[in-house]
Amino acid sequence: MKLASLGYRVLSISGIVALARRWRRDGVILCYHNVVPDCDGGEDDLGLHICRTIFERQMRWLAASYTVVALEEFAARRARGASLRGVAALTFDDGYAGVFECAWPLLQDLGLPATVFVVSDVPAAPTPFWWDHPAVASVAPAQRERWLTALRGDRSAILAAVGDGVESPRVPPSRLPADWATIARAAAAGLAIGAHSATHRSLPSLDALELQREVAGSRELVRRRAGVTPDFFAYPYGLWNERVRDAVRAAGYAAAFTLDRGHRRADAWSLPRINVPAGIDDAAFQAWTAGLQPPRRA
Description:
The protein is of the alpha/beta class. Helices cover 41% and strands 12% of the residues. The protein has helices at 6-14, 16-23, 52-65, 71-79, 97-110, 134-137, 141-150, 155-162, 180-188, 208-226, 242-250, 282-289, and strands at 28-32, 34-36, 49-51, 67-68, 87-94, 115-118, 192-195, 232-234, 255-257, 274-275. The strands form three sheets. Strands 1, 4, 5, 6, 7 and 10 form a six-stranded parallel sheet that branches. It has a two-stranded parallel sheet with strand order 2-3. A two-stranded parallel sheet has the order 8-9.
């Protein structure tokens, strides 16, 4: 999906984007999913796999235009009411191999901190996430949305609903989840690791015992396998409610993150992030970071 538009370019040329960036008071947390080699060659119906050259261009612009801080510092500044004007933080959901192979070396070179939210049950036996299966690409978006409720976002149930012959598709290596050895090495080198549940199911649809395992169990497993204790949690699919939020807080996380554009009553366990789609062009990316996103569709 291409998000380039004359409107964003006009906003940029007119100086409105720069003005909005200068006056935005709440900072910006960007959410990526994966970064892949330009020769990756895989399809990307959901816009999750951004090409390395595009990502590098975005990061160089971000480094020149914002103060990019670790997520820990971002959350701490917000908690004490300090200014977040001109401040940005970087996050990645799911723990794709491409993030460690393509994004992390670039971020190290640029001196940019980041946090990767890992789905804790996945690295032990890396297989494609259900949404990366070729058979899923042909399914209508409305049906995929229903899977998050009727099937609770559960991988096995969704693949069974798609049909036979999709359990072991061929996907580029960069689109597989990273293994624990890779994650642990990056963590030792300074990449922050957060938790993104145990299985990436839709948490509001789970009972109390299942929710406990997804929230507290994933934190413990990341601690044992990556050698770091996650301070932060990202809600799978960006879905949460008060019951889920309270479970995350009770598990000991310092903060949790959504994919919303923001809530007037957002607290440390419902912090909004901007999801960056792979098809976004430079003008749109710069406008979105400044808070100039299109209205949310009903």
